[in-house]
Structure formats: C-alpha cells, structure tokens
C-alpha cells in the first residue's frame, strides 16, 4: 500500500488534475476549483484509510461534483476548498485523528492496531479499572466489542501482570481482591487480535500500582504467559499512526 505522503502526491499531481479535466470545469464554465495542500493532507490522514487510492479518487470526485453544482447554480464563480469548508464538500472523515489526552490517569494506555486493507494504523485507547461484577474477585473481564483473540490476550496479559505485581510489591493484593475490568474505547467498533497484550499488561499494572503512564507512549505486541513479547505485525501501518499522532513507539 501507499504511505500518506505517497497518496498526497498522487492526489495532488494526478487525481485532482484528472478530475478537473474530466468535468471540463475550466473549459465549460471558465472557472476553477482549488483544493489547498492542507485539505489534501487532511484527506489522506483521515478520509483515505485504505491501501490503494480508490477512495481518494471517489472523494475528489465527490468534491468536484459538489463544486460543479455550486457553479451551475450560480452560487459561486470559483470554488476554494479549505479546512474551513472541507466537510461541506467531502463530508466527515472515516477516522478523525485523535490526539492523546488525559496524561496522569492510572490505568489508561495508548495501544496500536493495524487493519487489513488499510494503509495506516490506528491508536487503541485501553482503560483498566477495578469494578463490581458478578465474577469472583481476582478475575478479569473485558468490554468494548473485544473479539475472541483480544479477550484471550487480555486474560494472558492479566495473568502475567499478577505475577509481576507480586515480584514488585508482594503486599499489593489489588488484583486478587478486585474484579479487573479492561475497556477498549470506541465501544461501537469491533476490535480483535493479540497484539494489544503488552498495552493491556501495562494498563493493569498502572492501575494496580497507581502509577500513570504517558499517553504519548504507544505500545504494541503480543505477550505470552511467560512474559515474552512475540514478533509484531503491521509495523509500517502502526508507525504511520505513531507519526500522525506524534507519539513515542515501543514494542
């Protein structure tokens, strides 16, 4: 797939000129459509979440059609698409870039995910809290549309965290005396895969030790019952998310 920078060049140098030529806007109406570089950057970061450029072409076509309608109706002689009016022409993005917030909160971790068919990765916010539940104390439960693999990864990470906690502070019984709940934010979006194990492990320890972790630190990697970290997939896509959100990356 293409990186964001590569797609920006394709959109700027090929797709936009091609669409303007296809609609014959300049020849027929004697006017022009301009799309600022800031808009192109926003489109590639938040609207074109795919490995190829088909969505890029469709989105630019949508912008040109709306601009052409304005020109035909006499609402405007020239159309300038900028950050102030981007949603009027392109609608709202698939995945708005979210900046980390809430530094200093225990049990809140930034993970990373990569989905097949997308050219960029995504941040995955993970919360850990001690909660009341029908489960017995000393167990874990997960919420936020976690798939089977992600739920199993949570169990493994929790098991490792309990062992490490006893090594760090043998008097700390918080994981034994409470039900530990892991919540994956944006609960309406399905999530799966084992690579959040390290982030879940850190979220549990952060909550148990009452020690916050910087939200600018992004983590990824599957953790084993022995505490080892497996090889990580989707590195290019995950690094794209790190660069987009100006994070620090850790395996």
Automatic annotation (TrEMBL):
<dbReference type="InterPro" id="IPR027417">
    <property type="entry name" value="P-loop_NTPase"/>
</dbReference>
<dbReference type="InterPro" id="IPR008269">
    <property type="entry name" value="Lon_proteolytic"/>
</dbReference>
<dbReference type="GO" id="GO:0007005">
    <property type="term" value="P:mitochondrion organization"/>
</dbReference>
<dbReference type="GO" id="GO:0005524">
    <property type="term" value="F:ATP binding"/>
</dbReference>
<dbReference type="GO" id="GO:0051131">
    <property type="term" value="P:chaperone-mediated protein complex assembly"/>
</dbReference>
<dbReference type="InterPro" id="IPR014721">
    <property type="entry name" value="Ribsml_uS5_D2-typ_fold_subgr"/>
</dbReference>
<feature type="domain" description="Lon proteolytic">
    <location>
        <begin position="103"/>
        <end position="251"/>
    </location>
</feature>
<feature type="active site">
    <location>
        <position position="238"/>
    </location>
</feature>
<protein>
    <submittedName>
        <fullName>Lon protease homolog, mitochondrial 1 (Trinotate prediction)</fullName>
    </submittedName>
</protein>
<comment type="similarity">
    <text>Belongs to the peptidase S16 family.</text>
</comment>
<dbReference type="InterPro" id="IPR054594">
    <property type="entry name" value="Lon_lid"/>
</dbReference>
<keyword id="KW-0720">Serine protease</keyword>
<dbReference type="GO" id="GO:0005759">
    <property type="term" value="C:mitochondrial matrix"/>
</dbReference>
<dbReference type="GO" id="GO:0004176">
    <property type="term" value="F:ATP-dependent peptidase activity"/>
</dbReference>
<keyword id="KW-0378">Hydrolase</keyword>
<dbReference type="GO" id="GO:0006515">
    <property type="term" value="P:protein quality control for misfolded or incompletely synthesized proteins"/>
</dbReference>
<keyword id="KW-0067">ATP-binding</keyword>
<dbReference type="GO" id="GO:0004252">
    <property type="term" value="F:serine-type endopeptidase activity"/>
</dbReference>
<feature type="active site">
    <location>
        <position position="195"/>
    </location>
</feature>
<dbReference type="Pfam" id="PF22667">
    <property type="entry name" value="Lon_lid"/>
</dbReference>
<dbReference type="GO" id="GO:0003697">
    <property type="term" value="F:single-stranded DNA binding"/>
</dbReference>
<dbReference type="InterPro" id="IPR008268">
    <property type="entry name" value="Peptidase_S16_AS"/>
</dbReference>
<dbReference type="Pfam" id="PF05362">
    <property type="entry name" value="Lon_C"/>
</dbReference>
<keyword id="KW-0547">Nucleotide-binding</keyword>
<dbReference type="InterPro" id="IPR027065">
    <property type="entry name" value="Lon_Prtase"/>
</dbReference>
<keyword id="KW-0645">Protease</keyword>
<dbReference type="InterPro" id="IPR020568">
    <property type="entry name" value="Ribosomal_Su5_D2-typ_SF"/>
</dbReference>
